[in-house]
Amino acid sequence: MRRHNEQRASCIQPEKLREDVDFAYTKLKEMHPQLYWYISKKDLDYKFDSIKKTITEPLTPLQFYFKLQPVIANIREGHLSLRIPRKKFTSKEIKNLENKKGMFSRFEYYVENDRLFIIENKDSIENIKPGTEVLTINGIPVSEYLKKYRKLVSSDGFNTTFQSYFLKDWFFYFYVAENGFSDHAKIETLYNGERKMFQLKRETKSETEIKKDKELEKRTAEKKINDYVAFNNSYNRNFKFLDENKTIAYIKVKSFSKDYSEKFYKETFEKIKNSKSSYLIIDVRNNYGGSLDEINNLYSYLTSDPYVLIKPSQVTSKIAPLKTSYFRQSNFFQYAYKSLTYPTFFFAQTFSTYKKDGKVYYKMKADKTAKPNKDTFNGKIFVLINGGSFSASSIFTSKLKNDKRAVLVGEETGGANDGTVAGFYSYQILPNSKINLPVGLLLVQPNITFTHTRKGVIPDVSITEKMQDILDKKDPQMEWILNEIEKEKNQNK
């Protein structure tokens, strides 16, 4: 740990950093199955060559990250990103942080262009009102940070909605990695034309609060099946009926985590079937994705015909699946166990690929024909999407749209309509800066007729949520669906 932190703070000679640039590009060309999907080889060659010419003086790994990551972001693959080099903490430091409240994380944010707003202040810190704009942090304009951080973030392709959703969640991740943890911060704000200064503090939790946190972390049966997240005291999955007669069922999925998902969907769709619901609303707004197995299982409840979720997944070579950093992040005992099981892993991965028409593919359960579930829902389906719907959420919704199985309402998704590169990763360490570069090894594409738009999944009904809607606790996208359902019910009468 000490060595890591010393290396992170030290400057690296220009020639060594240029070696890291070459190393990164070589590994991308070797392992990434669709590197030139959104940028030509000529243009990407030029960008990598150009960045090397700008490295003329020693840089710390963090400074180097801010130089190289914008080039990686220009590949326009949302899953492809350097890991920002962060300080490592001792067990004592970690425990100390756990016993303190967050400083910036106790607010909810909204990003609009190069402006950052607070839209929720659960603990009424300094009585800061929702709708307050944060102008500066410790004297530095927030707009400067946002312009800098935007260059680090890419969606899949030429999507127009993803960045603002991602930045509202990750702004302070970048900020703290760049500026370090602090117990104080001075922010300048603007609300209703009035500027104010506030001194934020990282407060120590009381014994009661620490006890409450421990209680929240306990996994009850309900918490397991709804996939409870103690960090923000919420559930990844929720189900309810929206009317007394149970004609409208609603499922909210914040992340396709797979944990206990089979049991959740089994129980949920049994309830929907028993209630003879006519309408189903599935909400995957702000869902950054996750498990293919979960969306494959969920899809089985939404169709009455056999289906194939994704097309065969392409890899660059037969040995690509063996580059998945099998021993990564293993302690001594895990390493010893994995050493014993490695032959099984090696054998399984070696026979996990096949060749067809000169290309190499990886065997996946989701590219096989699947049967509809016995409790499949045959009514009308609406799906809520926005720029925070990414990765598996986009695979799921593009398949539903292609099969004309649902009406999509909201905004263009953050993930591409025609697929992405992810699946599993090879974690490459740049040899001199020691920055981690995870490279996705699988080209994962929904089993659809491709649009070739190089954008996200486009909704059937486009409705944008504004900040004022959030402040007023209005949901215009949901309201449109409920009004549409009411119209249909009246027509049927």
From TrEMBL:
It holds the Pfam family Peptidase_S41. One of its GO terms (molecular function) is peptidase activity. One of its GO terms (biological process) is proteolysis. Keywords: Hydrolase, Protease. Gene3D superfamilies: 2-enoyl-CoA Hydratase, Chain A, domain 1. The keyword Hydrolase applies. Residues 193-464 form the Tail specific protease domain. This is C-terminal processing protease CtpA/Prc. It comes from Chryseobacterium geocarposphaerae.
